[in-house]
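Minutes, project check-in
Item: structure for the 126-residue chain
Input as provided by the requester:
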Amino acid sequence: QVQLVESGGGLVQTGGSLRLSCAASGRAVSSYDMAWFRQAPGKEREFVAWLRWRWSPLNTNYADSVKGRFTISRDNAKNTLYMQMNSLKPEDTAVYYCAAASRGSASSSKNNYTYWGQGTQVTVSS
């Protein structure tokens, strides 16, 4: 199994940028389909982006709300998943979670993901 630890969250102004990291241990991130989800107060956890184990730009998918602003990527040497977030908006404020699913299982449904990190808070001020 894999253990996931997110970092990189913080407070940023509207229009700013952050890069989230998800460090994996126990197994390689390349062994899994990986994703980012987020959860705002009082709301359901929602899909943000996924990246298949056989990574290429064609093997990624994004929620419409973040398309063109967020980029998911992976560094196999560092065993870390990333998400670059640009042009941040107040509605992006949430706790962001990385998650891992078995190969071929990537989807926008949180039920497909077996392993989760503890989350990192992102707050965008207006």
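Outcome recorded: The chain has a mean pLDDT of 95.
No further action items on this chain.
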